[in-house]
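Service request form, structural biology core

Requester: graduate student, group of Dr. S.
Request type: structure prediction, single chain
Budget code: on file
Notes: please return the result as structure tokens.

Sequence provided:
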Amino acid sequence: MTLAGRSFLSVSLMFQPRYGVCPGGRPRNFEYCECVTDQHGAAAVGPRKQQGYPGQDLGLPEAGPGSIASMSRRVGAIFVDWLLCTLIVIALVRPARQDVSYWTLLVFAAEDFVLTALTGLTIGKRLLGIRVARLDGKMIGPLWGLVRTVLLLTVIPPLLVNRDLRGLHDRASNTAVVRI
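Core staff response, request fulfilled:
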């Protein structure tokens, strides 16, 4: 096929081998070869590794106690904690209306740090049946609790989860959120 006469090909010379002749020598009249699409599709996908379930690489069970908590439970726990902290601020601190969110953030940070470092549970996590656990089985402690809380408050690290549903804050503190 030519455009504007026989001197201008619609396909660049660089791509003619892909369009012109498929393996086996069959001409394709400059149409894209299905065999090329099949080859590139297979190469792009590559050998598939078994996906498994979240937490499998960490040695955690697929379901039940000790399995990785779902994102809906985690978001629900944060919502419950935030709501509770807002109620505490309104009832005890009684700041000006425009300062409520700042005080709530401060109370939320304190609650999350203290309760996670000591027990691995916040009130919202306990109500939704999840907890934070270190992968080596030890107590989270103040250092890793602080690291996890600071990264949690920056918002972006919890959103960057891996295959095991662990955010950057969990990976930095060597923790995972599991079901109770």
